[in-house]
Amino acid sequence: MSITTDSLPVAPRLAPALSVGWLGWVRANLFSSWLNSLVTIALAYFIVKYAIGFVDWAFVNAIWSVPNDAAGRPDTSSCRDNKGLGACWAVINEKHRFMLFGTYPYEQHWRPAVVCVLFVGLFIISAMRRFWRWELALIWAAVLTVIAVLMWGGVLGMPYVPQERWGGLPITLILATFGLAFAFPLAILVALGRRSKLPAIKALCVLYVELIRGVPLISLLFMASVMFPLFLPEGMNIDKLLRAQIAIILFAGAYLAEVVRGGLQALSKGQYEAAEALGLSYWQKTGFIILPQALRLVIPPLVNTFIGFFKDTSLVLIIGIFDLLTAGKTAIIEPMWQGFAVEVYVTIGLIYFVFCFAMSQYSAKLESELNHGRRR
Amino acid sequence: MSDTAIDPRYGTKPPKRPLRLSWGDERVRGIVYQILVVGIVGSIAYWLFSNTMHNLEVRRIATGWGFLEREAGLPIAEFLIPYDPTDTYLRALQVGVLNTLKVAVIGIVLATILGTILGVLKLSKNWLVSRVVGAYIEIVRDLPLLLQLLFWYALLQGLPGPRQAIHPATGVFLSNRGLKLPFFEWEGPHSWALLLVVIGAIATFFYRRAARAKQMADGQPRAIWPAATVMMLVVPLGAWYGMGAPFTPDIPALRGFNFQGGLTVSPEFFALLLGLTLYTAGFIAEIVRAGILSVSQGQWEAAEALGLPRGRVMNLVVLPQALRVIIPPMTSQFLNITKNSSLAVAIGYQDIVSIANTTLNQTGQAIEGIAIIMVVYLTISLSISLFMNWYNSKIALVER
Amino acid sequence: MSAAETLHSSVQTNAPPAISLAGVNKWFGALHVLRDINLDIALGERVVVCGPSGSGKSTMIRCINRLEEHQQGKIIVDGIELSDDLKSLDAIRREVGMVFQSFNLFPHLTILENCTLAPIWVRKMPKKEAEALAMEYLERVRIPEQAAKYPGQLSGGQQQRVAIARALCMKPKIMLFDEPTSALDPEMIKEVLDTMVMLAETGMTMICVTHEMGFARQVADRVVFMDRGEIVETGEPTTLFENPQTERLQLFLSQILRGH
Asked: A291 partner at 20 to 30 Å CA-CA among A72, A225, A235, B290?
């Protein structure tokens, strides 16, 4: 016997008012239980209290510029009296060119500025998917050459600027980007070598990776600054920046090699077999089939590793190379500006944060896109 | 199917293929490539080596380890083993290694605790909590560690001098000379009490195993905390009391320009520890969160559907699976703390890198100095890696 | 001939209902997913719930052991009303067993440990007794030799049978099945359905959400058809399948049978 309900469907009713819309969201996410409500209120109170305190310090009570005294040098007494109450952004006002470009000649500052813009452009282009082909390497080579020419000068009417006078943000970008550019091919070779069946090659690659990953970057930088001159024949001299760059390339290469190796492992065996069945040689197979797919698979971890290097370039402060962080630290050595380290570090932190946050958001977005595509 | 006859597939061996001396043979090519690569790398290494030997001679830099016996003349501010500048370089380096281990171990413990709490908080249903924690993690991960260390050190140095020190509680003073905490005179009974706590901890471990075995036998779960409290708290306290209960507080007091007495946490150590902990906790939080998320919702539901209360679901089903995902990246974070502690040289905390650096500057023996640094870190890294590999193979989920 | 005669009816008509849903409504956000559900299931009754995807059938049975919470209405299981009270919830979950579409075996425990976990920690059974009980049920689902293996080493059909044994080890009064064969390869569906038929023969109260109409014919005392959150038609399997009264059920049956 069959029991039926009315043939007209029951009309769907509105959900209880307190569980939909923004009211429902607030109830579920902020006030879902007594404990939660208490925590929300307490947290909101502290956030507002400290936010007000911070705004007071950073904006309301801050001093934005200081007058010059009789000798034409900045008179920071007003800043000092205000210490603890308000920020002294005057130090940024006075020193921002120095922090950004170091001791680069003042009138030529357009050149490192253009270099920074070129770097940002390079990153943006590399981030766009339609450029993910081998031709991207050519673009990198071209842009990096232009950057080198701009920094050194000596041609096209631009006066020559020796490397000792380079400093600030361009050095950070140069160390990070050239480091990545040269470390990447090295990493690919080492990752392939580690998966090789030839024992000697595999052993060499394993040795390289494990040695480099086991020691801190500082020891490699010390090695570069102190030991490299001993490694070279008399008379041959590489300047400090290049030595640090080589150390960073060796360091980055080992970590990137592990990331690439992860991609090679994740690629399904069927791809390798299909390529071999087609009769492709080892290098054809690797270049046309394996690497393009393996590299695409690991782009998020690659970006995360690059963020790490970008931050690690700050370590060159310890061996005396003038990067962004060193420039900041040096800016407050003068007695009149001593004690305003917090303002300087906050500003420099902001610059680093902008770069790293952009990259980390990109990597997160990419990861979710790739996951969606795979879950077909 | 007969199981007494041996499977005929297991009896015979494949024939050996002789090596054909031709380029077409894959194995010949392999050998040639390897000889080529090793040859090139070897010649580069030899060239570098001979250059180095020549340069060392020309610049009259000594080689060898004899300098370790010489007097160091190196002042070191903090040391765990007794040291003074008339000790040898070897002693100074040992102090450095201990300083590194001290900050690394404490940093690992604090970062793990903080990171785990943050990771669990980020999963909270409270939107405000999860966003605030998320913002903290993002900020800490997007700024260079060196910058953070310099920032904290600058803040600590900006604190008022000892005479105007911040005084939140009796005996606690925060000034630009560091943190002073009240302590007490350490005497014999205190060592005994500490020893009894350690023994109590080990005893609790075994007691827990015995209690679990009894539960398996008769089904009744037994509470561990009463026995644990007795073994780890009551017995040591009783022993200390029985031995006369000595307790002479050592409260820091302002004498002249600085404090005397009490426990000192130097600004360098404090800044380094603070920076390392806050930085690494951000990474550990993400690892813990990913580990908990890796256990599918279905596992929770199946365990709850069986009637297990939430605490047991966590302990018996979710945590064992989550830990498998958490522990490998967690160990690499532990390694990172140890390696990152080398940044101590930038803020004046004398760890192994700082002391070895001073040594090589004073003796001119750069190669030995850097070799010492690398060997120390390599030893730590490789031991942790070995342990990791062993642990991973032990707990791997068994699959087809 | 009524198909229900192939299986002895074990319905106890004079006892209070094992499960009673009265006026149950549930919303997911603004979506009204369960609309005025009224259903009584007697002890020993075997009910199959079917309907198109999105009809709310899984949501309904997940409300019974409170894996989902209903916002309006009353659900009474084994005489206890479902509410926020944790103690009554634990009591209910002890008497209601559930088998999931994705098996949800615990991969870090052996098959035997999967089955003995709840008896040891919830029913406070000694380990030896729990293991004997588990082996008994593993034999009933016909895979006792796999007891020492891990779930990752078993096929899908074997895993699902272990999941059934694991739920049975708690000796529940009611068993819920949420699309138990939907994630299985075709050749393994039969072994799981045979196990469920064997279970039905023992007189267990069962509610199954499934698309397997043959199983419904063979085992069900009653079939409930749901569409868009409400119960549209219920009745004995043969009458329902051969004589659908509503247009929606007719549409659904034509879509299901087209596949065959």
From this structure: B290
- Assess contact for C180 and C209: CB atoms under 8 A: no
- For B220, which residue in chain C has the nearest alpha carbon? C124
Establish, for the pair of chains A and B, how many residue pairs have beta carbons separated by less than 8 Å.
Answer: 148
Q: Is the dihedral of CA C127, C133, C138, C139 positive or negative?
A: positive
Q: Which of A231, A307, A325 sits opposite B51 (nearest CB)?
A: A231
Residue with tokens 């041609």: A155
Give yes or no for a contact between A224 and A159, defined as CB atoms under 8 angstroms apart: no
Q: Please judge whether C122 and B306 are an interchain contact, meaning their C-beta atoms are less than 8 angstroms apart.
A: yes
Beta carbons of B216 and C126 less than 8 Å apart = yes
Cβ atoms of B254 and B128 closer than 8 Å: no
Q: Distance of alpha carbon A361 from its chain centroid, rounded?
A: 11
Q: pLDDT tens digits for B212-262?
A: 899 888 888 888 888 888 888 888 888 888 888 888 888 888 887 788 777
Instruction: Identify the CA nearest to A352 among candidates A372, A374, A323, A376.
Output: A323
Minimum Cα–Cα distance from A329: chain B residue: B150
Four-residue CA torsion sign, C144, C149, C155, C161: positive
Residues of C in contact with B398 (CB under 8 A): 149-150, 152-153
> How are strands ordered across the β-sheet holding A2-4?
A2-4, C230-235, C222-227, C46-50, C205-209, C174-178, C96-99
Mean pLDDT of chain B: 86
Q: Bridge partners of C75?
A: C21
Name residue A244's amino acid. Answer: A
Q: Which residues of C touch A10 (CB under 8 A)?
A: 35-36, 230
How far apart are the CA of A204 and the nearest CA of chain C, in angstroms? 37
Q: Which of B306, B321, B325, B397 to mutate to test the interface with C (most CBs of C within 10 A)?
A: B306
pLDDT in tens, chain A (376 residues): 455 544 455 677 777 766 677 777 787 777 777 888 888 899 999 999 999 988 888 888 888 877 777 777 777 777 777 777 788 888 888 888 888 998 888 888 888 999 999 999 999 988 887 777 778 888 899 999 999 998 888 888 888 888 888 888 999 999 999 999 999 999 999 999 998 888 889 999 999 999 999 999 999 999 998 888 888 887 777 888 999 999 999 999 999 999 999 888 888 788 888 888 887 788 888 888 888 888 888 888 888 899 999 999 999 999 989 999 999 888 888 887 887 888 899 999 999 999 999 999 998 888 888 777 654 3
Q: Alpha carbon C52 to chain centroid distance?
A: 17
ipTM for the whole complex: 0.86
Residues in chain B within 8 Å Cβ distance of A28: 125
Instruction: Say how many CA atoms lie within 13 Å of A350 toward its Cβ.
Output: 8
Contact criterion met (CB < 8 Å) for C128 and B217: yes
Which residue of B221, B307, B320 is in closest CB contact with C93?
Answer: B307
Q: What element of type H or E holds C241?
A: helix C237-242
CB atoms within 10 A of CB B367: 17
From CA B283, how far away is CA B137, in angstroms rounded? 7
| B62 and A CB contact within 8 Å | no
DSSP 3-state of B137: helix
Extract the tokens encoding A72.
């034409």
The three-state secondary structure class of B172 is: strand
Q: What is the pLDDT of residue C1?
A: 37
Query: Which of B26, B38, B97, B128 best probes binding to A when mutated, by most A CB atoms within 10 angstroms?
Result: B128
User: Chain B closest CA to C16's CA: distance in Å?
Assistant: 23
Contact B353 A219 (CB under 8 A): yes
Are A76 and A66 in contact, with CB atoms under 8 Å apart? yes
C224 interfaces chain A, CB cutoff of 8 Å? no
> Any chain C CB within 8 A of the CB of A16?
yes
